[in-house]
Specification:
The chain has 558 residues and is an alpha/beta fold. The chain has three domains: 17-252 and 545-552, 3-Layer(aba) Sandwich (Rossmann fold), CATH 3.40.50.10380; 254-445, NAD(P)-binding Rossmann-like Domain (Rossmann fold), CATH 3.40.50.720; 447-526, no CATH class. The chain is 41% helix and 10% strand. The chain has 21 helices and 16 strands. The chain has helices at residues 23-27, 40-45, 59-72, 76-87, 91-100, 106-110, 132-140, 152-166, 185-188, 203-220, 233-243, 252-272, 288-305, 309-313, 356-363, 380-387, 409-415, 450-459, 467-479, 499-516, 531-540; strands spanning 17-19, 122-124, 147-150, 173-178, 225-228, 249-251, 281-284, 316-320, 323-324, 367-370, 394-397, 421-424, 431-434, 437-439, 442-443, 550-552. The strands form four sheets. It has a seven-stranded mixed sheet, with helices on both faces. Helix 16 links the parallel strand 10 and strand 11. Helix 12 crosses helix 19 (467-479) and helix 18 (450-459) packs across helix 20. The longest helix has 21 residues, at 252-272. The chain starts with 16 loop residues before the first strand and ends in a 6-residue tail after the last strand.
Length: 558
């Protein structure tokens, strides 16, 4: 978020931009470059006349040419390479192309973590810890951040989604990698490895290093949303707990995965017409994602249905490679797993088997969620046993990529006679149910939820991202799913092609929730009491991939 009282720049009344860049420097700036769309006046003023072809193009003409070039790339790799190249040349054209062809390019966009690996953003390592503030300020020079995130490769991709889906100005985002070393022997022995070639830092030194970075964000970009990405299972929840009450932070691996799964479950319950707190849920896989999902759904039971927290936790049975998490496992259970999620030994008996099929037989779950990366773990026996005891089994094999899914949607439907409500962690084609019907498989993709949460937090200038804000976002997304009791074969989630509309709807409700909890900080206090005005205000803040008029100013932006 911006650090000025005026907030994010109003996109409905944009004045000409004053730039100090000229000539080749301007053409090399992916943020300000217009390529052949620079006007005659701008070419004269910025020393570009001899550097560009004669004809001045419109953005629409450039878009047509770029789309032709994209289509002429026959393989996915070449298409992705073209998009990568375009992004580092001309961001307005890049985002415009994706926006205009969102449905066609949806799969590629949703998998951006595999596309963009450019050396962009800020790299921070322990050996340069004393220079951390200097490096951070240099990276932020002349920029007011809305968004900062950790981990260059995937976080650069997440920033793209924030801009494309939620209208966050890409110039106001900063991808950051906190490079704390690696224990990967292949990387350590690679002479060309570019990271810090050192044993992975842990314990107090690690905590101090991350803490210093987080404090820099609070000090110098106090209204920036800090998006944590790809922090290991032992650190993710610990860091979220540490900073969640101090600043606006969001951990996508925990909260994003939890929120989109809660949204998908909310949609499924609209089909079954049952309450969240009435479910019996087996969570197969108790890593950061699985535990994040269990916590998110439990918290929703508490906040939405008014269930006692302890009773809500007892609606879950967590299973991992050691079997059901019960007290007898002792130190095989991670220390960050709450006591309420661990089953009592007396409930099972000393000789009871507690692996997945046995747990399914005893629990008779209504919901089965997989985050185990154990391919095929939801076997025919498991699914058929579940289907014996519930009319419409809710089955979410969320492990990705596709080859690691706990089961395929086709098998889930076959083993339940077409009654299952299925969502996956990777794209799957529709399943033929017979009788002329096809089941549309919802992809439980975080990209449908975190852009709207971030946008709502940024525009409301939220001091924190609260649990209720995230739960409300999940409810909104779930309510937008096409599936219903009358049409159970429809997708449980909106199509990614509708993600921009989804983000705005989520953001509005997140803003409302921020107001209800007293964490919003609008300059115009009238916005606190007028939802229609907030909608207009939100829409005025959305960055759009359009060219602005430039005026040369030696003291302008560089």
């Amino acid at each position: 978020m911006t650090t000025h009282n005026t907030g994010i720049e109003d996109q409905t009344s944009i004045k000409p931009l004053r730039l100090a860049l000229r000539g080749t420097d301007l053409l090399r700036s992916e943020i300000y470059n217009k390529g052949s769309a620079f006007t005659e006046r701008e070419r004269d003023e910025f020393g570009l006349r001899g550097r560009l072809p004669f004809t001045v193009n419109t953005l629409e003409q450039q878009l047509e040419r770029a789309y032709d070039q994209y289509q002429n790339r026959k393989s996915d790799i070449r298409k992705n390479s073209f998009l990568q190249s375009l992004k580092v040349q001309n961001q307005v054209l890049f985002y415009n192309l994706l926006t205009k062809h969102l449905e066609e390019m949806a799969d590629a966009i949703a998998e951006y973590s595999h596309l963009f690996r450019q050396p962009e953003g800020l790299y921070i390592s322990p050996p340069s810890v004393e220079k951390m503030e200097e490096d951070f300020l240099e990276a932020c020079a002349g920029r007011e951040l809305d968004l900062g995130s950790g981990g260059i490769g995937i976080s650069s991709a997440k920033a793209v989604i924030y801009s494309l889906v939620a209208g966050i100005d890409p110039a106001r985002t900063l991808a950051v990698v906190l490079d704390v070393g690696t224990n990967n022997p292949e990387l350590r022995n690679d002479e060309l490895y570019l990271g810090w070639n050192h044993d992975r830092v842990r314990g107090e030194e690690y905590d101090s290093f991350v803490d210093k970075f987080a404090k820099l964000v609070v000090t110098h970009q106090p209204q920036c949303l800090l998006h944590f990405e790809d922090f290991g299972v032992s650190n993710a929840q610990k860091l979220l707990d540490r900073y969640a009450t101090k600043q606006a932070v969001f951990n996508d691996d925990i909260q994003g995965t939890g929120a989109v799964t809660l949204a998908t479950l909310t949609s499924a319950l609209q089909v079954t017409q049952s309450k969240l707190s009435d479910q019996r849920i087996i969570q197969f896989g108790a890593g950061s994602a699985g535990l994040g999902i269990a916590r998110q759904i439990r918290d929703a039971m508490v906040l939405v249905d008014g269930t006692d927290p302890k009773v809500a936790a007892e609606k879950f049975w967590l299973v991992d490679k050691n079997g059901l998490l019960k007290k007898g496992l002792g130190d095989k259970i991670r220390s960050d797993i709450e006591e309420d999620f661990i089953r009592k030994e007396d409930d099972w008996g000393a000789n009871d088997e507690t692996h997945l099929l046995d747990v399914v037989k005893k629990v008779k779950p209504t919901v089965l969620i997989g985050t185990s990366t154990a391919k095929g773990a939801f076997t025919e026996d498991v699914i058929r046993e579940m289907a014996k005891h519930t009319e419409q089994p809710i089955i979410f094999p969320l492990s990705n990529p596709t080859r690691l899914a706990e089961c395929t949607p086709e098998d889930a439907q076959k083993w339940t006679n077409g009654k299952a409500l299925v969502s996956t962690g990777s794209p799957f084609p529709p399943v033929d149910l017979g009788n002329g019907k096809k089941y549309t498989v919802a992809e439980c993709n975080n990209a449908l939820v975190y852009p709207g949460i971030g946008l709502g937090a940024i525009v409301s200038r939220a001091k924190r991202v609260t649990d209720k804000m995230i739960i409300r976002a999940a409810q909104v997304l779930g309510e937008m799913g096409p599936a219903s009791a009358d049409k159970p074969e429809a997708s449980l989630l909106p199509d990614f092609a509708d993600s921009q509309k989804v983000a705005v709807a989520i953001a509005l409700e997140v803003m409302d929730q921020a107001i209800r909890e007293g964490v919003a900080d609008f300059d115009d206090k009238a916005l606190l009491h007028d939802k229609d005005a907030r909608k207009i205000y939100l829409e005025s803040k959305l960055w759009k991939p359009e060219y602005r008029e430039y005026v040369y100013d030696p003291d302008g932006r560089k």
